[in-house]
Amino acid sequence: MRVVVSVGGSVLAPDLDPERVAAYAEAIERLAADGCEVGVVVGGGGVAREYIETARKIGANEVELDRLGIGTTRLNARLLIAALGERASLAPATDTEEAAAALRRDEVSVMGGVTPGQTTDAVAAAFAESVDADLLVYATSADGVYDADPNGDPDAAQFAELSPADLVEVVLPMSRDAGASAPVDLLAAKLIDRAGLRSIVLDGTDPSAVVDAVLRGDHTGTDVVPLDGDEPNRWTEGR
């Protein structure tokens, strides 16, 4: 089973806690030990936002801000690589072709951001499409996709399942809001729709949730299911 896991920086390293990074490395190692080919894309999180906000105040332009964010994602990726040790690629991949090559070498392929104007959400979707992944998992600080921002709307309802096209429709209005509240950005949603990627959006605060979702399809988040998409064989073998 080939899986790409997108780990938000605020999930992996909200306060640069070595135990949390180690726990994520253990979860990824568990997947690899179970026979999964694993690619990981790491976000920037709060540290990236602090750098970006500081740079904005001193007059940096948007491309410069994006590059600061990309640099922070790659620092977070290096943290994870250090925790994974010999199982992982030596350094963060700088494009999806390099990341795919690491998978072919039977390494856990780790990358951060790639280019200005593109979030790690979209990088993960492009990576998953480029390697024909069986599953794309977004480990976020939100427990799935909602019809409104659950932090600001007590009546927000979670979607248990969406088609990729429905995901685009749900994310589109959220992407227009200041501070975009969608757990997956619009470009990522469009790439998921284009590729027909089976995806899961879940609360990744506990790394074991990613293991359960990948190996058994068990989670409390949102399934994004292509119209003609079957469940991964691994999920059905044990039933």
From TrEMBL:
Enzyme Commission (EC) number: 2.7.4.22
Coiled coil location: none
Reaction catalyzed: UMP + ATP = UDP + ADP
GO biological process: 'de novo' CTP biosynthetic process
Pfam families to which the protein is assigned, alphabetical: AA_kinase
Name of the top EC class for this enzyme: transferase
One Gene Ontology cellular component: cytoplasm
Localization per Swiss-Prot or TrEMBL: Cytoplasm
Keyword flag Nucleotide-binding: yes
Highest taxon of source: Archaea
Pathway per the UniProt entry: Pyrimidine metabolism; CTP biosynthesis via de novo pathway; UDP from UMP (UMPK route): step 1/1
UniProt similarity note: Belongs to the UMP kinase family.
PANTHER family: URIDYLATE KINASE (PTHR42833), URIDYLATE KINASE PUMPKIN, CHLOROPLASTIC (PTHR42833:SF4)
Free-text function comment from the UniProt entry: Catalyzes the reversible phosphorylation of UMP to UDP.
Subunit structure: Homohexamer.
Protein known as: Uridylate kinase
Gene (UniProt): pyrH
